[in-house]
Each structure stands twice: as C-alpha cells, then as structure tokens.
TrEMBL record:
It comes from the Eukaryota. Keywords: Coiled coil. Residues 61-95 form a coiled coil. Residues 1-30 are annotated as: Disordered. This is Uncharacterized protein.
Length: 109
C-alpha cells in the first residue's frame, strides 16, 4: 500500500485499531501530497490530530537538525583524522615512485 493511501486510511481510521492508526500517522507526515490534494487531505483530520501531526513534524524537524549537526561534527572529525593519513600515504607513494625510478635508471646503466 503506498504512503498516500496509508495516510488516508490512517486519517479516516478505516478498519484500524487506535494503535494501528497511531503507527500509521507518521506515514501521513512523510507522505508527499501534491498541491492540489493537500487541502483536501488535511481537511480529513480533526483539530486534535492536526495538532499532534504538527507536534510530530516539529519533533522530526528538531531531530533532523540535531542529526545533521551530529553528522557534520562527525564528518569534520573524520576529515581531521583522515587528512594526516592521506598525506602520509601520498608521501609514501611519492617516495616509492622515486625509488622505482632510481632502480630502473640504475638497472638500465
């Protein structure tokens, strides 16, 4: 069942227990309705449900922002740790190439 149908089913509660409807509600938040149906879809929700969905969206936004901050911090940490290793590897490759050239040059004479 696609996300839009799931969201509509969750909104109407058709054949679902409260627990199922609660589990499906986040799917309604993640569904990407088109502009033509957005108003219609939201009109199916009562005010309490809209408030809960809004709060859920706020929590998701806060969580996403926090996760983005954590990921950015981890990325910076990885860059700081990786950069010296990358430099050492490049230096080692450079030295290896120089040695190979010297050996080839000496063996050709």
């Amino acid at each position: 069942m696609d996300e839009r149908r799931r969201a509509k089913r969750a909104a109407s509660g058709d054949g679902m227990t409260n627990k199922e409807a609660a589990l499906e509600a986040p799917a309604a938040v993640h569904a990407e309705p088109n502009a033509a149906t957005l108003g219609h879809d939201l009109s199916r929700y009562d005010n309490e449900t809209l408030v809960k969905l809004t709060e859920h969206l706020d929590r998701l936004a806060d969580q996403s922002e926090l996760e983005a901050t954590k990921l950015h911090s981890l990325l910076e940490q990885l860059r700081r740790e990786y950069e010296p290793m990358r430099r050492r590897r490049e230096e080692a490759e450079y030295v290896e190439i120089k040695l190979e050239r010297r050996l080839k040059h000496k063996s050709s004479h």
